[in-house]
Amino acid sequence: MNDAVRSERPPHEVADVLRSHGEAFLQKYGAYLRPEQKAALRALALCRTAALGGHVTRCLDCGHAHIAYNSCRNRHCPKCQALSRAQWLEREGKLLLPVEYHHVVFTLPQEVAELVTSAPTSDNAKVVYNLLFQTASATLREVAANPKRLGAQIGVLAVLHTWGQNLHHHPHLHCVVTGGGLSCDEHGRADAAPEWRSCRPGFFLPVRVLSRVFRGKFLDGLRQAHAQGALTCAGRLAPVAEPAAFASWLTPLRHKDWVVYAKPPFGGPAQVLKYLARYTHRVAISNARLVAVGDTVVFHAKDYADGGKSKIVRLSAEEFLRRFSQHLLPKGFVKIRHYGLLANHGRTECLHTCRRLLLPALLLAAAMLTPAPAEAIAPALPPTCPKCGSVRLECRELPKELATAPTAPAAPEATSHNSSGGCGATLASDTS
User: Fold this and answer.
1) Which domain holds residue 169?
2) From 41, 203, 275, 400, which residue has the greatest number of CB atoms within 10 Å?
């Protein structure tokens, strides 16, 4: 198999840092990582290498062979999100309504975020992130249901991000919200014979009101979690472990402005899908942002405090991995959730009612548009040999125990198993 080749890979990868400095990092910081975080780092280091096995696609005419190694499919891997993102977007596209959508971001203050980083091996991350989902979604639904605001039951899609551009811990929730909803009472229960109520064009709900309601709900939930013993106060927060001290620690947070930001609204479902494609399956840092990898890791980062200018960040390899590890979520934690009209329970019936109520306006808008000519869809072409163009290809699996044989590349540089040959090799199953 001397003629075997591999597809191009990015010049620098997060996996390169893990392979060269992962052992030293674990020796220094391993005690501060949860088991699932260590497992994720191992998966990312082995992704698309001979250690996970793979397959060889060989041309029967010229003998040209292409080797592709299996991917880890871990949700934190920068290389393994394309397929899951495409499948998710296909499902999500069926839920979109023909209305304006709004983008609202809820950000936790740094003092609260420190509950997660000060006790990294505890359940604080799960408690704080779950509370962020619960209170942000409840805030949106409560304010929208208020008859003085909108008086409607809205649909919410929420996506958790825990990082800033420089990889510091910066938990915030991106919410994509329908620009209207089904008429309801003040408790959010839809009317027996609901009507569709739209937001004013370009305006959703007042962010100052959202901020204050969110702050109150989150701090009340945090107090309850502490009283139930669900929070661990460690490190710099160890002095506030007692109930009275914790209550005093919460007091200044009740008088602080919490950041809730409403971005310009989307024009419609097509723009929403484009946005979701960028945000839903994003990981802490993409390989494309890496500039150099060695004892020092260099990467691009946008400085939003300076107008979003792109700047260079330089970190030691261990510090880079320490920051990256902060964003490895607890095992089984759901980072994309639906609420209101989009909640799993009763969603089909709710969306059917919404589309029925929106149909007259949709038909009127369609009648005023000039239909674009339909584009012909070219049939899928069979895979061909990149060297001679032949379609006579055979695919052979490379088991893990044979993947490091002299006939396969020894260096950890390989493509996903999803090559054009499509021979369905077995994948690693760690997706935590």
Assistant:
1) 96-284+327-341
2) 41
In eight-state DSSP terms, residue 211 is H
Shared domain for 104 and 17, answered yes or no, is: no
Distant-in-sequence contacts of 32-37, Cβ < 8 A, 24+ apart = 32/120, 32/121, 33/120, 33/121, 33/325, 34/120, 34/121, 34/328, 34/330, 34/331, 36/328, 36/330, 36/331, 36/432, 37/325, 37/328
Q: Are residues 72 and 100 in the same domain?
A: no
Residues 234, 143, single domain; the answer is yes
pLDDT band at 313 (very low <50, low <70, confident <90, very high): very high
Same domain, 73 and 122: no
The residues, any chain, with a CB within 8 Å of residue 420's CB and separated by 6 or more, are 57, 383, 384
| Residues 186-217 pLDDT 10s | 888 889 999 999 988 878 899 999 999 999 99
**Do 240 and 157 share a structural domain?**
yes
Same domain? 164 vs 128: yes
Q: What is the C-alpha separation between 389 and 303, in angstroms, rounded?
A: 47
In a domain, 289, yes or no: no
* 154-161: average pLDDT: 95
pLDDT confidence of 8, banded at 50, 70, 90? low
Please write the tens of the pLDDT for every residue from 287-302: 999 999 999 999 999 9
Q: Which single residue is written with the structure tokens 């509370």?
A: 131
Has residue 333 got a pLDDT over 90?
yes
Residue 409 has pLDDT above 90, yes or no: no
The pLDDT of residue 414: 40
| CA distance linking residue 389 with residue 121, whole number of Å | 54
State residue 2's pLDDT score. 43
355 is a domain residue: no
CB 395 within 8 A of CB 57: yes
Shared domain for 139 and 225, answered yes or no, is: yes
Return the sign of the alpha-carbon dihedral for residues 4, 7, 11, 12: negative
Q: Which residue has the tokens 């990294």?
A: 120
Write the DSSP string, 101-163.
Answer: EEEEEEE--HHHHHHHHSSTTSSHHHHHHHHHHHHHHHHHHHHHHSTTTT-EE-EEEEEEEEE
Instruction: Provide the domain count of the chain.
Output: 2
- CA dist 317 and 22 (Å) reads 9
Tokens of 144: 């929208």
- What does the chain come to in residues? 432
